[in-house]
Design brief:
Order of helices and strands: EHEEEEEHHEHEHEEEHH
Mean pLDDT: 97
CATH superfamily: Class I glutamine amidotransferase (GATase) domain
Helix content: 25-40%
Strand order of the largest sheet: 5-2-1-6-7-11-10
Largest sheet: 7 strands, mixed
Low-confidence stretches: none
Length: 185
């Protein structure tokens, strides 16, 4: 399985790390030894609003070859939902099996057209912003609508990561990884 973590300026790093930590353990604990991922950015450096900056491993690459795209949220999503070039890049994932988001990352999935007639969630302050992009806004921490999976506010990223561990490996993987993370939610 090959994953694309989508990065953009104004990201909330906890949205990314919250899902990344349990998912990467699928590989490191040998549940999915062939699991691989890229950090795909729209620019050569990505910063949050506090100035924490990283360099993506891929820049504006075609996303069609991945099995899943994972889109974190952050204040930057409000700018990116109207950035035509960014949305066109994201739409290269149209045929990717899994479209996954954390927090306001669902606004980007929606603006790219991936949530049409689907159930989805986002940060609790942005439910009304999400409404025009999807069929139904839900308040659950994790919402599964086929292979489109969205998570609510920031800490729901961990719940989503553990959900993916269960879905992509098995219940045992999710239990072991939850234990190793000392996550008791």
């Amino acid at each position: 399985m090959n994953l694309a973590f989508i990065l953009f300026n104004g990201i909330t790093w906890m949205d990314l790390i919250g899902i990344y930590e349990p998912v990467q353990k699928l590989k490191s604990l040998n549940y999915l030894p062939d699991l691989k991922w890229d950090f795909c950015g729209f620019t050569s450096e990505i910063s949050d609003y506090g100035g924490f900056t990283v360099k993506p491993t891929q820049i504006k690459n075609d996303l069609s070859s991945y099995d899943a795209i994972i889109v974190p949220g952050g204040k930057g999503t409000r700018d990116m939902i109207s950035n035509t070039e960014f949305l066109q890049w994201l739409q290269t994932a149209a045929n990717v099996q899994y479209k996954i988001s954390v927090c306001t990352g669902s606004l980007l999935l929606g603006a790219a057209g991936f949530l049409k007639d689907r159930k989805a969630t986002t940060h609790f302050d942005e439910h009304e912003t999400l409404r025009p992009y999807c069929g139904e806004v839900r308040t659950d921490r994790v919402v599964v609508d086929g292979t489109v999976i969205t998570a609510g506010a920031v800490t729901a990223a961990i719940d989503l990561g553990l959900h993916l561990c269960r879905e992509w490996a098995n219940d045992e993987a999710a239990v072991v990884i939850r234990y190793k993370m000392d996550y008791r939610n």
